[in-house]
Design brief:
Helix content of chain A: 40-55%
Shape of chain B: elongated
Largest interface: A-B, 20 and 26 residues
Number of helices of chain B: 17
Strand content of chain B: 15-25%
Structural class of chain A: alpha/beta
Largest sheet of chain A: 5 strands, mixed
Largest sheet of chain B: 6 strands, antiparallel
Distance between the termini of chain B: 83 Å
Strand order of the largest sheet of chain B: 6-7-16-15-12-13
Number of helices of chain A: 5
Radius of gyration of chain B: 61 Å
Number of strands of chain A: 5
Order of helices and strands of chain A: EEHHEHEHHE
Helix content of chain B: 40-55%
Structural class of chain B: alpha+beta
Strand content of chain A: 35-45%
Distance between the termini of chain A: 22 Å
Oligomer: heterodimer
Number of strands of chain B: 21
Shape of chain A: globular
Strand order of the largest sheet of chain A: 1-2-3-4-5
C-alpha cells in the first residue's frame, strides 16, 4: 500500500492507495507516528483505497483518539462503495466523519 | 406373628351395648322396685292398721250408732245383702299377703282387658292416690266399675283373688259374675267403655258381732282415671329421665371404653400407614412402621395385614428401583450405542472442490438401521452411499455398522462397483442366521469428468436436479444385499453437469403416513425439492414437508443425502500462512469471481481477510499451521470454506459485541467476526478431522 502524506494549511492529508489490512496498517502506524500528527487535523484520502480490514479500522480509531485528545478533527474523504459498506456494517460511520 | 381373633370386635360391641342395656334396665328396675317397695309397705300397713275416717254424712251416723267403724261397716253391708264367710286369722294373713303381692307385687297389675276397658296398674293408682289424698286413713278397698252403658255399677270383691289357698268355709253367694271372677285365676275384668272412675275394694276380714251378726271388713279405694293418667304420666316422666340420664352416663363410659379398646388400636394402624406413606412420598428409605397392637381382634388382623403389605411394598419398590435402574442403564447403553453409531457417520456438511454435500439423518428409535456414508477414493473421486437395514434397534444397527464398513473398505480397495457389491453381499450373507438384509445405493462421482457411476441394491432411486428439472432416475433395482450369495449386481453410468444435484433418500421419507394412512409418496418429494435452491435448504424442505404431513410417531428412520455440483470452484492452500498470503488469496478470489457483483466480491474479500487474519494471528497449532480455502459458486450463492488445523475454535461462539465494545476491549479477532456475521448470508462452523471448518455463504 502506498502512503502519501502532505501538509496543507495546518492539516495532515494522508492519501492511501491499495489495501489497508493487517500488514499495511502496521506500515501506516510506523510511517505516521504520533509525533508527526500531534496537534494537527487529519484528513484521510481514500480515493484510491480499495479495501479496509478490521486492522485498518483499528488504526483509524487510534488516529481518531489521538486527534480527539488534542482537540483535533479526523475526516475520511472519498471512500469507495465497498469501504462505505464496511463503515456501515461495522457502525464506524457513526464514529468517523466521512465525506 | 398372627394375632388370633379371640375377642372379636362384634363381641366387644355386643358386650358393651349389653352392659349399657343392663345398666339402664337395672337402673329403672331398681328404681321401680324401690318405689314400689316403699309404697307397698306403706299401704299394707296403712290399710291394715287404720280404721277410721269416714267422710261426710256417714260420719254422723257412725258416731251416732256404732262404737266403732267396723260395726258400722258390717251393718252397712249386711243391708245390701252380701253374704260373707269367715276367714281364719291365718287365712286372713295369707290372704292379705297374696292380695298385696297381687296388687303391689311383681306383676303389678290387676288389669282390665285392653280392648274392652282400661288396663290399670292397681298399685300405681293406689300409691298415687295415697300420696295425693293422704289415703293413710282409707280402710276399705273395693273394686267397682261403673258401666255407663248399663248404668250400673259393678263391684267385685278382691277376695280370693290370687290366693294361694282358697278360703274355706261356705262360699259366699254372689252373683254369677262374681263367682266367675273368684273362681278363676283371671285377673281381668270385663268392663264397658267410658269408665271414668273406679274403686278397688279389698275385703279383708269378717267379724261376728256379739249379737251374732256377721260383718265383713273391707278396704276400698276410689280412683278417677284422670288422676290416674296424670300420675302415671308423671311417674313415667320421672322414670324416663332417670333412664335417659343413666343411658347418657353409660354412653360416655361406653365411648371411653370403646376408644380405649377399639379406636385407639385403629388409630395406631392408621398412623402406621400414614407414616409409611409419608416415607414413600418424601423419598426416604423405606422401613416397616411397627407399632404395638395386641388387641386380639380384627383390628390386630388388619394391623398384621398392613405390616405384611408394607413389607411387600418395600420389596416391590426395591424391585422397581432395580428394574428402573436396569432400564435406565440399558437405555443409557442404548444412548451410547446410538452415539457411537451416529458418530461413526461422517458429518452432515462437506465441501470439497466444486462439491457441496449435505446429509440429514433422524433415527426413529434410538438406534436405527439407516446410514449414509461418503469419502474420497482419491483426490478426484468422491463416493457416497445411502442404505437401509431391515429392522430397527440394536440388532439392525450392528448389521448396519458391518455393512457400512464392508462397503467402504471394499470401495477403497479399488474394486469396480459391481465387484464391490458382489463382495459386500457375500460378506453380509455369511453368518447371517437372522436373515437381515440391507438396501443400498452407491455412487462414485469423478470431479473432473463429472461422470457418475452408480450401483443399486434394491434401494429407492435417487432424484436428479438438473437445469431446473427434477426427475427420479431410472436405475436398475437389482436385489438387496445380504440375502442371496453370489448375486450379480449391475452398475450404471451417467454424465452430470455443473449445477446439477443428486438427491438420495431412504423409504422413511416416501413411506411416511398421515392420519388417513396415506403415504407421503414420490411426488411430494419432488415438490419439496423444487421449493428451494441451496442443497441444505432442499433437505430441510423435504424434512419439513414430511413432518407436517406425518401423523403420529415417526415410524421409520429418516435419511437423506444430497450432492451438489457447483459451477465453479477454486482451491487454495497455504502452509505456514503469513499476512502476505491474505493478499494472494483475495486476489485469486477476485479473479475467480470477476464476473460477479463487485460488492459481493468485496464482501467476500473482507471475510476472507478477517478469517485468515484471525487464523494467522491467533490459531494455535501443534504441528505446522495451514489454511485451506475452497471457494465455489452456483447461481444461488457463493460459498467460502476456510479450513485450518488450529485448536478447536468456533468464531461463532464469540459473544456478539458491538463494534465499540470490540474496539474498547480489544477482543481477539472480535471485530472481524462481527463484520463477517453482518455481511454473510449464512455462517457455519464445524470441527472435523482435527480441523476447524468455517463455511460462509454470500
Amino acid at each position: 500500500m502506498e502512503i502519501n502524506c502532505t501538509n496543507e494549511s495546518g492539516k495532515l492529508i494522508i492519501a492511501l492507495e491499495g489495501r489497508l489490512d493487517t500488514v499495511t496498517s502496521q506500515d501506516l502506524m510506523n510511517k505516521v507516528p504520533l509525533e508527526n500528527r500531534k496537534g494537527l487535523d487529519i484528513v484521510f484520502d481514500f480515493t484510491n483505497l480499495q479495501y479496509i480490514s478490521s486492522a485498518g479500522l483499528r488504526v483509524l480509531i487510534t488516529f481518531k483518539k489521538d486527534a480527539d485528545a488534542t482537540g483535533n478533527s479526523l475526516l475520511i474523504k472519498n471512500p469507495n462503495e465497498v469501504i462505505k459498506e464496511i463503515f456501515k456494517v461495522t457502525g464506524f460511520d457513526k464514529i468517523l466523519k466521512v465525506e | 406373628m398372627k394375632n388370633k381373633v379371640r375377642f372379636p370386635i362384634l363381641l366387644k360391641i355386643l358386650l358393651l351395648s349389653g352392659i349399657l342395656t343392663l345398666f339402664v334396665t337395672a337402673t329403672s328396675l331398681s328404681v321401680s322396685i324401690a318405689i314400689s317397695y316403699n309404697r307397698q309397705k306403706g299401704i299394707y300397713y296403712n290399710s291394715c292398721s287404720s280404721a277410721t275416717t269416714i267422710v261426710g254424712d256417714d260420719f254422723e251416723e257412725l258416731i251416732a250408732n256404732y262404737t266403732n267403724y267396723y260395726d258400722y261397716l258390717f251393718a252397712k253391708y249386711e243391708e245390701t245383702g252380701y253374704k260373707y264367710y269367715e276367714l281364719t286369722s291365718e287365712q286372713q294373713d295369707a290372704y292379705l299377703e297374696d292380695v298385696n303381692d297381687y296388687l303391689y307385687g311383681r306383676e303389678g297389675t290387676l288389669g282390665f282387658d285392653l280392648e274392652k276397658g282400661v288396663r290399670v296398674n292397681i298399685y300405681e293408682s293406689l300409691s298415687n292416690y295415697i300420696s295425693e289424698y293422704e289415703y293413710s286413713s282409707i280402710s276399705q278397698v273395693n273394686i267397682s266399675v261403673f258401666d255407663f252403658q248399663k248404668q250400673q255399677s259393678l263391684s267385685w270383691f278382691v277376695q280370693g283373688l290370687g290366693c294361694k289357698e282358697k278360703p274355706s268355709g261356705k262360699p259366699v253367694e254372689v252373683d254369677q259374675k262374681q263367682t266367675d271372677f273368684f273362681s278363676s285365676d283371671k285377673s281381668e275384668i270385663q268392663v264397658g267403655d267410658g269408665i271414668q272412675e273406679y274403686t278397688i275394694m279389698l275385703r279383708l276380714r269378717e267379724y261376728t258381732s256379739s249379737a251374732g251378726n256377721k260383718y265383713v271388713y273391707y278396704i276400698w279405694n276410689t280412683i278417677s282415671l284422670e288422676k290416674f293418667n296424670q300420675s302415671t304420666t308423671r311417674g313415667f316422666i320421672t322414670e324416663l329421665s332417670i333412664c335417659l340420664g343413666a343411658s347418657i352416663l353409660l354412653m360416655i363410659i361406653y365411648g371411653v371404653l370403646a376408644r380405649f379398646f377399639l379406636v385407639r388400636n385403629l388409630k395406631k394402624v392408621g398412623n402406621s400407614a400414614q407414616v409409611f406413606v409419608g416415607k414413600i412420598k418424601n423419598n426416604e428409605p423405606l422401613e416397616v412402621v411397627e407399632t404395638k397392637v395386641t388387641s386380639h381382634d380384627e383390628v390386630a388382623e388388619v394391623y398384621n395385614d398392613m405390616i405384611i403389605m408394607q413389607k411387600q411394598m418395600i420389596e416391590y419398590v426395591d424391585n422397581i428401583k432395580d428394574a428402573a435402574s436396569k432400564e435406565e442403564k440399558f437405555n443409557a447403553e442404548l444412548q451410547v450405542a446410538s452415539k457411537i453409531q451416529l458418530d461413526s457417520l461422517p458429518i452432515n456438511t462437506y465441501f470439497y472442490k466444486s462439491i457441496e454435500l449435505r446429509t440429514f439423518i433422524r433415527p426413529s428409535k434410538i438406534v436405527g438401521g439407516d446410514f449414509y456414508d461418503y469419502f474420497l477414493i482419491d483426490e478426484n473421486n468422491l463416493a457416497f452411499i445411502i442404505a437401509d437395514v431391515s429392522g430397527k434397534g440394536v440388532p439392525a444397527s450392528l448389521f448396519m455398522m458391518k455393512a457400512k464398513e464392508s462397503i467402504k473398505s471394499t470401495v477403497l480397495s479399488g474394486l469396480s462397483l459391481t465387484d464391490v457389491f458382489k463382495f459386500v453381499n457375500n460378506q453380509l450373507c455369511y453368518n447371517n442366521k437372522e436373515n437381515y438384509f440391507v438396501t443400498a445405493f452407491l455412487g462414485v462421482l469423478n470431479l473432473k469428468s463429472l461422470e457418475l457411476k452408480t450401483i443399486n441394491a434394491g434401494h429407492e432411486a435417487p432424484y436428479l436436479i438438473s437445469k431446473g428439472k427434477i426427475e427420479r432416475l431410472n436405475v436398475k433395482s437389482n436385489f438387496v444385499l445380504g440375502m442371496v450369495e453370489n448375486f450379480e449386481y449391475e452398475e450404471e453410468k451417467m454424465k452430470l453437469h455443473k449445477g446439477d444435484s443428486i438427491y438420495l433418500h431412504t423409504d422413511g421419507v416416501n413411506e411416511a403416513i398421515n392420519e388417513k394412512e396415506e403415504e407421503f409418496g414420490y411426488e411430494k418429494i419432488k415438490d419439496a425439492l423444487a421449493t428451494k435452491v441451496s442443497p441444505k435448504d432442499r433437505l430441510e424442505a423435504v424434512r419439513e414437508s414430511v413432518d407436517s404431513f406425518s401423523y403420529g410417531e415417526q415410524f421409520d428412520d429418516l435419511t437423506m443425502l444430497i450432492v451438489d455440483i457447483k459451477e465453479n470452484s477454486l482451491h487454495l492452500h497455504y502452509d505456514d500462512p503469513k499476512y502476505e498470503d491474505i493478499e494472494d488469496a483475495t486476489d485469486k478470489m477476485s479473479e475467480m469471481l470477476k464476473s460477479k457483483d463487485i460488492e459481493v466480491v468485496s464482501k467476500l474479500g473482507i471475510i476472507l481477510d478477517e478469517m485468515m487474519n484471525n487464523i494467522i494471528s491467533y490459531a494455535k497449532v501443534k504441528s505446522e499451521k495451514f489454511i485451506d480455502i475452497t471457494i465455489s459458486y452456483d447461481k444461488e450463492a457463493i460459498n467460502l470454506v476456510i479450513k485450518d488445523n488450529g485448536l478447536p475454535f468456533n468464531p461463532l461462539s464469540v459473544e456478539e459485541k458491538t463494534v465499540q465494545e470490540n474496539l474498547e476491549n480489544n477482543v481477539e479477532g472480535g471485530l472481524g467476526i462481527t463484520i463477517v456475521r453482518n455481511i454473510a448470508k449464512e455462517v457455519e462452523y464445524n470441527f472435523v478431522d482435527k480441523c476447524n471448518y468455517l463455511i460462509v455463504k454470500i
